[in-house]
Amino acid sequence: MEDRIHYLLQQFTAKTLSQAEREELLVLVENSTSLLSDEIIKMIIAEEEQAVNVVEEKWSPVLHKILAVDKPRRSPKRILMNSLKWAAAAVVFVAFSLTAYLSLHKKKEHVFTADIAPGKNKAILTLANGRKISLSDAMKGDVAKEAGFSITKTNDGQLVYKIAESENVNDDRLNTISTPNGGEWQIRLPDGSTVWLNAASSIQYALNICTARQRVVKLDGEAYFEVAKNATHPFIVETAKQAVEVLGTHFNINSYNDEKVTKTTLLEGSVRVTHKNTNESEVLKPGEQSFVTLSGMDVKEVDVDEAIAWKKGYFMFNNEKQESILRKLARWYNVEIEYADPAAKDVMYYGTVSRFEKISKVLRKFEQTGEVRFDIKDNKVIVYKE
After folding, report:
1. Which one has a higher pLDDT value, 190 or 182?
2. What is the pTM of this model?
């Protein structure tokens, strides 16, 4: 993310931003002001006085009007403070300039005749006895009791397992929580670990997860985990292609059946990823992501913000193909995707957009590149190459 912001700022000061890049930078100004100002500060400090001069030359006198301060002197004690002031003003100026430019150059927007609302908290709990409970319809408070547990829905919608007093839980029967297309849910497991389930996903776990030698969870789809530490009872997440073993850590797994690659991204702690077919094994460090296919695996450093953007309420695309992006939208908005022109699948995008906008607003962002066009009919999005 930082590298992308740095590139966009360089293009901005050089006056070489494309229309799509201007749109992207404006979204960053609106949603990531602190990150943007941090990057400007880094650029200034990295070049010391030379960079301050560059900022002054390119953005004065507008910046002087914003700050109403004199031109900085070259006193060593004042360089950093003035750099910070210039950086803060630069953020304001970037926002002002982009907004003005886009207002003057804005294309006539495509009018959609239909629209689709974003996803929301929605999931089904399947108990060991086969009973199914709609969690979105369940009232707050106790949802069910099973095998020494009370299962409770909190005020914020989280599902929480609590061990009843004087109970020795050793039941290895399974519970399953599944989200449909257009749904997500947060669960606190009996061992205290917390799981965020993305759309079209499910996890399955035994009721004795607290006392079993290994705390095993089976995942289909995508989930973010914050695992309760327990050195004597390793936590293992199994998917179709891999097993991930942890002691206590924060990580994300993307393992949808319609994706060729299973991705595990580590934010904190340490995990071991083992390929189920080849038995190849890698230990990840924070900031690393493993890529597991049917034939093997690879590990590289990544921007973890991109991997967990969904958990924070937005989509982030980093040189990603339209086809991959629309699979994500299909799950979240519960829509069918149809390509009138298959060439549209290969269009690449950078950008960030909220998950809680109606789909028309998201699609309009892509249309502003001038490379694609969309129609919405019933519950279907039709994609055209421009």
Report:
1. 182
2. 0.73
